[in-house]
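Work Package 3 (structural annotation) set out to generate three-dimensional models for the target panel prioritized at the project kickoff. During this period the team completed the workflow that converts sequence records into discrete structure tokens, so that structures can be stored uniformly alongside our sequence database. As a representative example, we reproduce one entry of 129 residues exactly as it appears in the project archive.
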Amino acid sequence: RAIEEFEFVIARGASGSVLDVAYDKLSQIYIKLRNTDKAIEVLKAATETNSVTHLNRWYGFWLEKLLEQDRQEEVETVVVECLERFRKIPNLIPFHCFHQAGMLAMFNGDLASARNYFFRLYRETLLSW
């Protein structure tokens, strides 16, 4: 029932914080139901509305799913896309992009690149405080 209600709010053309809340609640429901495909779909739809609230979370889910499926080339492409997209948004740090890129580099044995990604993640986090 809750899924139907939030989908109704989104379909009716809600905007601003109401839309953000609807997307957030709907994605959380799918996460609790362990339906990551639907959660990713909802979060991707949220990012396409130019809502930056869900952008970081969507990239986190998507990158994690690609890593689980051992699709490393796609991870690299998505990380580049993520970092480019975040450059255009002031005061928003791509936590998941840096973290997942660092993990991929580490698993591939490229410790210098992994260290660079993790350093950028921590530096950006500290600067944001």
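The mean pLDDT is 77.
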